[in-house]
Amino acid sequence: MELLTEANTWIILGVALLILEIFSTSFYSLFFGVGALVTGLVVWLGGFDDLFTQIAFFALTSLLSLLFFRNKFMNIFLKKGGEFKEIIDEFAIVSIAIPAGGEGKVFYRGSDWIAYEKDGEPIEEGSKVLIKKIDGIKLIVDKV
Q1: CATH class of 83-143
Q2: Neighbouring C-alpha atoms within 13 Å toward the C-beta of 23
Q3: What is the rounded distance in angstroms from the CA atom of residue 28 to the CA atom of residue 14?
Q4: What is the pLDDT of residues 88-97, one digit of tens each?
Q5: Which of 9, 17, 84, 124 could form a Cys-Cys staple with 33, CB 3.0–4.6 A?
């Protein structure tokens, strides 16, 4: 029995992309991981023999799931979740300086978050900021 079949390769790729999503929280690799898992299942069931068809099916399922479900997942996990709203009006420390009109990082409750200043003003590393809003997975902050 061959261990590294085409189906197993797709499934391993899918699991790797799902694990990557845990660390990225961008909600992109999640859907490509699902596409790879679905492709692996179809290949395992004998659906596709040639690599070109497998790649086309992977691309199609990944992109369709991304287009139809990403915004729903973003709303469920980031915008409607009460656990994220509780950080509004909390304080954080700038861990990577925020340049004027750019992004930096702030440290809040043991994690670094991508952040930008709401008025586009630069904020130095080590400064204390107030979290004013959440924009997807980014924090909008004010210098204190």
Answers
A1: mainly beta
A2: 4
A3: 12
A4: 889 999 999 9
A5: 17
